[in-house]
Amino acid sequence: MFGKKTFGVIAALMVCTLSLTGCGSSKTTGDTATQKEEITFVNWASAEESSRPYINKVIEDFQTQNPNITVKSVPIAISDIANQLTIMTMGGNAPDIAQINVNEGVTLASMGGILETDSLVSKDLATDSYFKKSWDLGLYKDKHYGIPWIPQPQGFWYNKVLMKQAGLDPNKPPKTVVELKAALDQARKNLPSEDLMIGLDTTIRTIGLDQEWPLIRSFGALPVDGTKVAANSPQMIEYATWLRKMVKGGYTLPGKKFGEFRPIAAQNHLLFMIDEPQFKGIVQSLDKTLTDDKFYEQWGVTSVPAAADGKIYSAPDDHHLVLFKASKHQASAMKFAEFLANSESAFKDYNAKIGVLPATESGFKKYPDIFGDATRKTYVTDILPNVVPLPVGPNLAKVSTVIMAGMQEVITTDKAIPAILDSVQTKLEGIINGQ
Amino acid sequence: MVSKPSIPQQSVGKGKWHKPHLPLPFILIFPSILVLSIVILYPLISSGVLSLFHYELTNPDDMKFTFLKNYQMMFHDDTFWASLKNTLFFTGFSVVISLVIGLWGAIVVDQLPEKFSGLRGFLLLPWVIPGVIVGFLFMLMFDVEIGVANVILQNAGIIKKFLPWLMQAQLAMIAVIIANIWNQVPFYILMFSAGLKSIPMDVKEAAICEGASRWQEFRHVTLPYLKGIMVITSLLMVIRNFNNFPIIYTMTGGGPVYSTTTLVIYIFRLAFEQFNIGYASAIGIVWCIVLLAISMIYVKILYKQDEL
Question: Within an 8 Å CB–CB cutoff, is residue B30 touching chain A?
Answer without folding.
Answer: no
